[in-house]
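Lab notes, practical 5.
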Amino acid sequence: MSKGKVLVVDDDRSLRQFLSIWLKREGYAVRAAASGRDGLHEMTRDPADVVLTDLTMEGIDGMGVLTGVKEHWPDTEVVMITAYGTTENAVQAMRHGAYDYITKPFNVDELKLVLDKCFEKQAMRTENTALRRLLVDRFGYGSMVGRSAPMAAVYDLMDRVKDTPVSVLVTGESGTGKELVARALHYEGERREAPFRSINCGAIPENLIESELFGYKKGAFTGANKDHPGLFASADGGTLFLDEIGEMPLATQVKVLRALQERKVRPVGGSEEVSVDVRLVAATNRDLPAEVAAGRFREDLYYRLNVVTIALPALRERLGDLPMLVEHFVEKYGEQFGRPGISVGAEALRALAGHTWPGNVRELENAVQRGVALSRGDVVTPDALPPEVVGPAGDVGALPSSVPPEGMDLDGALERYELMLIESALEVSGGVKTEAAKLLRITFRSLRYRLQKIGIEEPPTRG
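Output from the prediction step:
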């Protein structure tokens, strides 16, 4: 079994032959190309783990090889081979993504050390990817919490798009966690080492939003005492999150569209454009197609933003995540308030499970925060929760007895009721599932299935 795949790109035939022979003896699978063009062609046929490329070649040189490899195969490491006296160019290549460089003439021990480090880095990346996938399967994605089927679909889409430069539009009701998606895409993706910047487009006055986004030059307006780079420039190489994009003025939309098309911005009061490399994530709780039809949002900008859409489910559509979310928020605010051992009692949990959560996860977080702050003992009780959660006259976990005029989510109501009864049975049985199943007059297998369905228990793994 080979130690990995290495592609040698060099127009010096003798060096190609020497490296091919030596690398094969070291246990690598080796291919060689006599030009940058041939090297990129070899990568399309079978991508290598590491590319060793000469810096100076006719046609597509080493920098061209580096650019092409990093654009299409970002996980492949590139090592530059450079002649003595041109190391400045090699250092410049490292700034653009090369892993390292070696100077001709070199000894094989030096090259062996560099290759070992390359493959060690790749092994660590593979291990981290597997670990992140395990954590996603068990808990959530980034700082997002939940493992229900709707959230699993969201995580899968995020995982596929996180390392790409495409624009992402995050949609969903208020309080569903749209900024968490933007942050997870950034910090779980290849831009994690670069800046993350955000702005709420609905919270900035119309006459200030352009200077916040694009920056301004000293003296551009009253109070502009020094140059200000703006969010596009300060997020260069990273991610810019435009929250509530539907609130952005039409005049600003035109300039954002141009920035996306040209990858350049012009500061307010400036005469020169500044190049920017920014991954844009936008979010809205508005129906943007309807806004486009009404003339309040530019159609061309909508299609520029809507390359990939991530639609976040409302909390009522993923109630199986509620116990995990409650546990997460209780732990968070227990630590903040100096009450690390606090927990949520069964009655309070039934109240939380019975609420419809129009404010989604944000409302749930606020309710748990209040519960932790106001509880007298080590257990959150219903009296510490918001009145709208507990219901009138302390009607814990109240479920509707009739269909309201605005309609209702029948599946959600039944799921809340099922969760409430299962939690109650587990409390009475002291957590013994066989006894809880008897109390509910169902089989143990049926209880296991229901626990898995609502996300309380992991499904069994199959070897």
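Observations recorded by the TA: Residues 8 and 15 are 9 Å apart (CA to CA). Confidence is low (pLDDT under 50) at residues 134-139.
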